[in-house]
Amino acid sequence: MPFPSARIALFACALACSGGSGGALAAVHVVTANPDMTFTPATLTIHQYDIVRFVNGGGLHNVRADDGSFVCALDCNLHTAPSAQPWQVSRQFNRLGTLGYYCEQHGDTSSGMRGTIIVIDRVFVDGFDSAGD
């Protein structure tokens, strides 16, 4: 086992090489907007800095965050209205917490076609798993 100062130096190097944002560890998760007016999965728990790819699996859909932080369909800039085209968009989630989202055609902030993303801190989940190593 390396000396404590060597372990600190290795950790500092790993943190600097990853940009400090955890981006090197980011995973991509897929949420599908379905023809039956549901999102699959309806609830998704991810780590901070992970990416969610929203995919239109059929039907007239878009995805809008409850807090207004994004509205996406064909893209997240100009073409955000519900679309029946086979679109897919990706969003990175940097903020911890719970964020609801919905399809503007079939839901709203409290009912209908909606889902939830729960963003948790990777350190508190993964950081303690190897503490005894």
Question: Can you describe this structure?
Answer:
The chain is mostly beta strands and 133 residues long. The protein has one domain: Cupredoxins -  blue copper proteins (Immunoglobulin-like, Sandwich), CATH 2.60.40. 14% of the residues lie in helices and 37% in strands. It contains 2 helices and 9 strands; from the N terminus they run αβββββββββα. The chain has helices spanning 4-17, 122-126; strands spanning 28-33, 39-40, 43-47, 51-56, 63-65, 71-72, 88-92, 97-107, 112-120. The strands form 2 sheets. Strands 3-9-8-5-6 form a 5-stranded mixed sheet. The longest helix is centred in the first third of the chain and has 14 residues, at 4-17. It is globular, with a radius of gyration of 18 Å. 20% of the residues are buried. The model is unreliable at 6-20 (pLDDT under 50).
Which structural class is indicated by helix and strand composition?
A: mainly beta
Low-confidence residue ranges: 6-20
CATH superfamily: Cupredoxins -  blue copper proteins
Cα shape: globular
Q: What proportion strand?
A: 35-45%
CATH C-level class is: Mainly Beta
The biggest sheet, with number of strands, parallel, antiparallel or mixed sense and barrel status, is:
5 strands, mixed
Helix/strand order: HEEEEEEEEEH
Mean pLDDT: 84
- The counted number of beta strands is 9
The order of strands across the largest sheet is: 3-9-8-5-6
Number of self-contained structural domains? 1
Q: Approximately how much helix is present in the residues?
A: 10-25%
CATH fold field value: Immunoglobulin-like
Count of runs of 4 or more consecutive helical residues: 2
* Rg result: 18 Å
CATH 2nd-level architecture = Sandwich
The separation of the N and C termini measures 10 Å
